[in-house]
């Protein structure tokens, strides 16, 4: 699943250039020969994508070159007139100065006067543009690493250059080098004998250079504890100590370890237990993670910890090793893979830890066996953590770790554990470039799952999809919107256990006290302190309560919708965006009807989200927040629509083939799609989210076709199916009044909500329907009469001479006539409703009850 994508290879991108320029040793015919991988080596990687490499030149020389990863160009920097053993090399940004450390044998004659000090390691500062003057910076018996600092601005043509010298006697020096121009083109060092220097750190046991941020991390021992220090370099102002954090474990190492200071091909191999295996990873999203492995107590398990400083957590993992074909156990390797940190032991396991959302273990991937292979992997790879690169020095290649989408999808489909399925889908949706085809693959896979697993994963798919689209507009919403449908997860992942320690209070105070620090990280830490209040201000329960109040209000009085005028206008605006989100022709025609309940819920969700975002991210401005939130809700509806549309396409359904009059022509695909739409409904309603208007109508049509009447009514009573005005209208219009259909209609009419009851009953020419209309008419008129003055005389209607005197009915008719005369007809649209209509219906119903038939 994790692959190393090649971004640079000395044999393909440097070797042909050397041969063409005749910069390699010549053969007997005077032709330039190809170099082996051991003769052409990468020695350092600079901030701007410059790869410093060295090779054996003509006549026993040693050459230094630079490859630009962005421009794919090579440049010769310097040629030593003899073979030297370069253990470190760095070039400044202007490519005018070269710093090198050379390993030399004691007692070996030195041909150059500048090399006279005989020491094991010699550090030189060389002018390469073009004066070629050389100054000895250090001559000691321990190895020395060199690293130029890079400034971001090009305001000055030749600014002051800054160089770090890191010696293995545990001292780091910072040297300032002023370069001036002579004769219009010669870049030379000003006053080379008096270069200002200062000691940055002493007596440290581990150090790492952050190339991108120009930041130095190192570890010292204080009171028997390992303490992490962070030192920030600025070229335009004073440098600053940013952080001091106790790591919580004692230092028992004896060998110094340097990370990301280039590669020393001549270093002495030492036991891994003698040095601290620790690396720090940072990114532009404000994440700072400290990863380290604990000393192995036995060969049965690995223990490693990850301090997520941007969350204030320390997570310690304990992995039980399975049997493997590998003859030996390698050291833990830590890799930076975008939003994940990969912990890798070749042949045993690969653990991808989600550092952006680490609160749920099921969002991280733990692979073992054949799934845990990283290709191609050389056991001697060195990770360049700050640049997200992996350097294979022995092969002369640079890789970038990437996740393979196809293998990730295959892992998701083949996994039997829900935690693995959720982690793979979460990764595919949020962190890979999830396109329309990948989304369709995920939906197709969801169709084959069991009902219990499918509903939960549909929720994860919906929430993750709309979250990814929202933060692509602005990263300010990353902490304000849910990225997962889960609030907590307490399951176990086979083969691994995790314990979490909260260190936010101690770590956060140290960071906050610094005057200047990583602004994004400070924002993360401060927002996480208020994380609980953020989640409480936008929870699904509040949306559920709003939905319940909305629906109950509609059942009482249809005029309650008027209170949602602004909300409905917002919903219409959002629905107008939904159609524009997908250029493809849809199979399922949602949003084709006025579904007031769903439209009101759409508007209410939008208003609630706007209040939430405006409260915590008011700096965005109200207009931008309105646009972002409306897009968020529109993406939600479009995502639900796409899920259902993909399901229908997979099973070849078309809505124009679904008629209520031919319910006997049901195929198996309709049964499957009907139940899948139930899972989608449960997933959406479980989050109290709105549905596209028209969803319930189409679902009811499928249910009416697939289910026998008693099952259909049971689904309606359980709330799995929702009656709509559009469905009942279709039911009345498409079905005749046969005995079976009449029973079907009566069962449905007995369950329709009151809000649509009055609109529907008048469409059905049936005694039950006319009785219902008459009863409603009487109820409304009598309520009007109760508000009138009781002293008003009763209006006496002239009696038909042929009318039978049925006193109860006659009295009721007189009262209704009086109210009808005083007030306009409440059923203006129904011209057949008046007192005479009520009287006729009442007589018919009385005859039926008395068993008089048509007499």
Produce the secondary structure layout.
Elements: E1 2-9, H1 10-13, H2 15-20, E2 40-45, E3 50-56, E4 62-68, E5 73-80, E6 85-91, E7 97-103, E8 121-127, E9 134-140, E10 144-148, E11 161-167, E12 171-177, E13 179-182, E14 186-189, E15 197-202, E16 206-210, E17 215-222, E18 225-232, E19 240-246, E20 257-259, E21 278-282, E22 288-293, E23 301-308, E24 313-320, E25 333-337, E26 340-345, E27 349-354, E28 365-368, E29 374-375, E30 382-384, E31 389-392, E32 397-403, H3 405-414, H4 418-430, H5 436-447, H6 451-473, E33 496-502, H7 504-513, H8 519-529, H9 531-537, H10 540-556, H11 565-581, H12 596-616, H13 622-650, H14 668-686, H15 695-706, H16 709-718, H17 725-734, H18 739-749, H19 754-761, H20 767-786, H21 807-822, H22 835-849
Parallel strand pairs: 1-29, 16-20
Antiparallel strand pairs: 1-32, 2-3, 3-4, 4-5, 6-7, 7-8, 8-9, 10-11, 11-12, 12-15, 13-14, 16-17, 17-18, 18-19, 21-22, 22-23, 23-24, 24-33, 25-26, 26-27, 27-28, 30-31, 31-32
Describe this structure in words.
- The structure is a single chain.
- The protein is α+β, with helices and mostly antiparallel strands.
- Among the domains are: 540-761, no CATH class; 775-849, no CATH class.
- Helices cover 35% and strands 23% of the residues.
- It has 22 helices and 33 strands.
- A 5-stranded mixed beta sheet has the order 29-1-32-31-30.
- Strand 8 and strand 9 (134-140) form a beta hairpin.
- Mean pLDDT is 79; it is low at 106-113, 512-518, 527-540, 551-561 and 826-831.
């Amino acid at each position: 699943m994790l692959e190393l994508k090649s971004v640079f290879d000395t044999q393909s991108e440097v070797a042909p250039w050397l041969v063409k320029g005749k910069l390699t040793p010549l053969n007997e015919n005077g032709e330039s020969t190809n170099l082996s991988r051991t003769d052409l080596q990468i020695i350092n990687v600079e901030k701007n994508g410059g790869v410093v490499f060295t090779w054996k030149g003509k006549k026993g020389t040693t050459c230094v070159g630079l490859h630009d990863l962005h421009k794919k160009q090579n440049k010769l920097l310097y040629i030593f007139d003899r073979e030297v053993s370069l253990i470190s090399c760095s070039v400044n940004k202007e490519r005018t100065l070269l710093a090198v450390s050379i390993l030399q044998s004691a007692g070996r004659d030195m041909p150059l006067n500048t090399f006279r000090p005989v020491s094991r390691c010699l550090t030189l500062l060389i002018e390469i543009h073009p004066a070629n003057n050389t100054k000895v910076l250090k001559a000691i018996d321990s190895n020395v690493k060199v690293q130029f600092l890079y400034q971001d601005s090009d305001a000055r043509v030749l600014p002051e250059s800054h160089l770090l010298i890191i010696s293995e006697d545990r001292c780091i020096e910072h040297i300032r080098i002023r370069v001036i121009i002579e004769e219009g083109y010669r870049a030379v060092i000003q006053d080379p004998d008096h270069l200002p220097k200062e000691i940055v750190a002493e007596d440290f046991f581990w150090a790492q250079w952050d190339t991108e941020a120009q930041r130095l991390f190192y570890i010292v021992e204080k009171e028997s504890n390992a303490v992490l220090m962070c030192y920030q370099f600025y070229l335009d102002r004073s440098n600053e100590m940013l952080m001091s954090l106790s790591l919580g474990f004692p230092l028992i190492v004896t060998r110094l370890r340097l990370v990301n200071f280039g590669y020393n091909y001549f270093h002495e191999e030492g036991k891994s237990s003698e040095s601290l295996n620790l690396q720090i990873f940072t990114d532009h999203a404000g994440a700072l993670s400290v990863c380290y492995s604990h000393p192995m107590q036995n060969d049965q398990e690995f223990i490693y910890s990850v301090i997520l400083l941007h969350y204030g957590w320390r997570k310690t993992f304990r992995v039980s090793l399975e049997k493997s074909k590998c003859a030996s156990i390698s050291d833990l390797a830590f890799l930076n893979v975008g939003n994940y940190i990969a912990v890798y032991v070749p042949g045993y396991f690969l653990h991808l830890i989600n550092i952006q959302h680490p609160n749920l273990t099921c969002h991280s991937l733990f692979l073992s066996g054949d799934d845990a292979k990283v290709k191609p992997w050389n056991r001697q790879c060195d990770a360049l953590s700050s640049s997200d690169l992996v350097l294979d020095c022995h092969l002369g290649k640079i890789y970038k770790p990437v996740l393979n989408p196809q293998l990730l999808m295959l892992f998701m489909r083949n996994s039997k554990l829900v935690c693995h399925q959720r982690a793979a889908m979460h990764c595919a949706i949020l962190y890979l470039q999830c396109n329309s085809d990948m989304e369709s693959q995920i939906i197709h896979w969801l169709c084959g799952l069991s009902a219990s697993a499918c509903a939960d994963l549909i929720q994860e798919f919906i929430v993750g999809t709309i979250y990814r689209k929202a933060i692509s507009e602005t990263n300010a919403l990353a902490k304000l919107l849910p990225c997962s449908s889960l609030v907590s997860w307490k399951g176990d992942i086979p083969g691994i256990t995790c314990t979490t320690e909260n260190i936010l209070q101690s770590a956060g105070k140290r960071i906050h006290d610094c005057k200047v620090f990583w602004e994004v990280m400070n924002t993360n830490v401060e927002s996480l302190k208020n994380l609980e209040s953020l989640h409480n201000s936008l929870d699904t329960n509040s949306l559920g309560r709003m939905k319940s109040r909305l629906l109950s209000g509609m059942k009482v009085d249809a005029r309650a919708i008027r209170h949602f005028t602004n909300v409905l206008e917002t919903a219409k605006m959002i629905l107008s965006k939904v159609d524009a989100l997908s250029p493809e022709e849809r199979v399922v025609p949602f949003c084709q009807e006025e579904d007031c309940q769903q439209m009101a819920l759409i508007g209410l969700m939008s208003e609630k989200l706007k209040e939430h975002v405006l409260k915590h991210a008011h700096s965005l401005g109200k207009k931008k927040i309105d646009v972002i939130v409306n897009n968020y809700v529109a993406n939600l509806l479009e995502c639900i629509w796409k899920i259902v549309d993909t399901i229908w396409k997979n099973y070849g359904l078309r809505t124009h083939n679904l008629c209520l009059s031919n319910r006997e022509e049901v195929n198996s695909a309709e049964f499957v799609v009907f139940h899948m739409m139930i899972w989608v409904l449960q997933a959406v309603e479980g989050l109290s989210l709105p549905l596209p208007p028209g969803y319930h109508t189409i679902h009811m049509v499928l249910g009416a076709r697939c289910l026998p009447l008693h099952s259909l009514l049971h689904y309606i009573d359980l709330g799995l199916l929702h009656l709509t005005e559009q469905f009942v209208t279709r039911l009345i219009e498409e079905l005749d009044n046969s005995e079976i259909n009449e029973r079907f209609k009566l069962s449905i009419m007995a369950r329709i909500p009151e809000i649509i009851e009055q609109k529907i009953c008048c469409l059905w020419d049936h005694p039950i329907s006319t009785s219902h209309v008459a009863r409603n008419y009487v109820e409304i008129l009598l309520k009007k009469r109760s508000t009138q003055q009781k002293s008003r005389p009763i209006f006496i209607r002239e009696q038909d001479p042929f009318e039978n005197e049925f006193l109860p009915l006659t009295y009721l008719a007189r009262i209704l006539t009086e109210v009808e005369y005083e007030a306009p007809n409440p059923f203006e649209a129904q011209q057949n409703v008046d007192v005479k209509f009520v009287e006729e219906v009442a007589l018919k119903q009385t005859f039926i009850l008395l068993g008089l038939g048509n007499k």
